[in-house]
Amino acid sequence: MKFVHWLVLGCVVALPLSASAQWQWLDKNGKKVYSDQAPPPDVPEKNILRRVGPPPAARSTANPNVDAPPLAEGTADAPAAAPKAAAAPKPTGVDKELEEKTKKAEAEQKAKQAAEEAKIAKAKADNCALARQSKATVDSGIRLAKVNAKGEREIMDDAARAAEQKRIQDVINSDCK
């Protein structure tokens, strides 16, 4: 049982070592970027704050062919092909995450806007239906009553009926398109 405890303790102690293989550099805007991949080739050496291995000068003196791709036989341009292959920019995880966040935010914004437009369209449709129903009632010629500020019923005269018809027609013109 004690061996298992020592094994678990060893795993827990070794766990943070995986975090030490991280790159840290300053991008063009001066923001710190953390990644498990090397920075793009356009980042100058002075902006690389932390790297996974020894600096490139120490690496090149120890074994210059460590990072070089295998040379193709019979080609005179093989050494020139190595810088072209190394110059290919590698996309970093930070850019992908940023793009995903912006796309997600834009999608949420569009969804909110579409929901708000649908809500407004539904309200206009309801107002239109009520206005048409009210217009049919006012145009029918039956006696209509309104409740005044005191809470008493008042029968609408011809002037009040004409004003109500005009108000309802304005609502129909604005909401029923």
UniProtKB/TrEMBL annotation:
Biased composition range(s): Low complexity: 78-91
Keyword set, alphabetical order: Signal
Biased composition (Basic and acidic residues): 93-118
Pfam families cross-referenced by the UniProt entry: DUF4124 (PF13511)
Domain DUF4124: 10-63
Signal peptide positions on this chain: 1-21
Domain of life: Bacteria
InterPro entries hit by this protein: DUF4124
Residue span of region Disordered: 33-118
Protein name: DUF4124 domain-containing protein
Lineage: Bacteria, Pseudomonadati, Pseudomonadota, Betaproteobacteria, Burkholderiales
